[in-house]
Amino acid sequence: METRWLHVTSENFASLREASRGVCVIPVGAVEKHGLHLPLGTDALISEGVVYEASKLEEFCVFPTFVFGDMYGKFPSMPDGTVTLSVELEMRLLEELCEQISKNGFKKILIFNGHGGNGPWLATFLRRLGNRKRDYVAATYFTWECAPHELAKYLLENGPGSIPELTPEDEKYLLECHEKKMLVGHACMGESAPMLALFPEDVHFERFGIEDGHSTHAADHLNKAGIKTMDGGWELDYPNFYCADDHPGCTVSIGRAALRFQAERFAAAVKVLKDDDFLLAENERRNAGWQ
Ligand SMILES: [Zn+2]
């Protein structure tokens, strides 16, 4: 069944609604620099890719991607290609989109977030919704990156050959990365892997080695003193918008495994939401209290 809102016909929409059992997912991303090797839209593209793959495993409606996310920096110091909307506009836009989704019969809305910087405003968004009368429930899910550490842990537990996508070289590389405690954070292997599976032509490992992905420790003294600046000083520590060890051994096959793991995990989460009766019942009770 076609699960993507933009690809289904109006005539077939009711069938999608029925198969989704009320669940509609909004992939959310950001437009920002991802080192020198990944494209600006990495977060949005991964969100969309994982959500779509998951919808093939556990049917639900895939809403068009909410591409723009929250960025802490200010122009003109932001790297080329950054797009950031005000938090107020993002909140309003997301709420109106949720209302449209609800009017179309989906009462369980799940926001799939692929950009860590969206966490604070999405939490506030849910708080705000909680203070309004509405006929739907909304919740968030933060994307779960699994290369290299989660894949390596799976291999260690289940043995060589347990992840069918991987070659013996892939397995060796993943275990090495895990043993070395490879740094993952931003534009890291956790993001390069699914991007290799989805858009291999957009991944440029030949750019490794030009900019450093390790912390400058510029914000350490603030953090040590318990002073929390925006994003815990991330913008000071990682001025290259790269927080990772280079990972030139990451391959398309590792990417396919990572994408499948992420999609399966998300499909399982959607199943929980589909089966849940508590959230909507609780919302009804809250609604009754508003009158
Ligand atoms: Zn990212």
Keywords:
291 residues; alpha/beta; Rossmann fold; 4-stranded parallel sheet; 7% strand; binds zinc ion
Query: What class, by secondary structure content?
Result: alpha/beta
Widest beta sheet: strand line-up? 2-1-3-4
Tell me the overall shape.
globular
CATH topology of the largest domain: Rossmann fold
Structural Rg: 20 Å
The proportion of residues in beta strands is 5-15%
Uncertain regions spanning at least 5 consecutive residues: none
What is the overall pLDDT average? 94
What is the domain tally?
2
- How do the helices and strands follow one another from N- to C-terminus? HEHEHEHEHHHHHHH
DSSP strand tally: 4
Whole-Å distance between the termini?
A: 40 Å
Q: List all distinct small molecules, including ions and cofactors, that are bound in this structure.
A: zinc ion
- So what's the CATH class of the largest domain? Alpha Beta
> Number of helical runs?
11
Percent of residues in helices: 40-55%
Can I get a quick summary?
The protein is of the alpha/beta class and 291 residues long. 45% of the residues lie in helices and 7% in strands. α5 (149-158) packs across α6 (168-179).
Task: Please describe what this structure looks like.
This protein is α/β, with parallel strands linked by helices. It folds into two domains: 5-144 and 263-290, 3-Layer(aba) Sandwich (Rossmann fold), CATH 3.40.50; 149-258, no CATH class. It contains eleven helices and four strands, in the order H-E-H-E-H-E-H-E-H-H-H-H-H-H-H. The protein has helices at residues 13-20, 42-57, 87-103, 119-130, 149-158, 168-179, 189-198, 220-224, 234-237, 252-275, 278-290; strands at 23-28, 61-62, 108-113, 137-142. The protein has a four-stranded parallel beta sheet with strand order 2-1-3-4, with helices on both faces. Helix 2 crosses helix 7 (189-198) and helix 5 packs across helix 6 (168-179). The structure holds zinc ion. Zinc ion binds at residues 34, 42-43, 115, 186, 191.
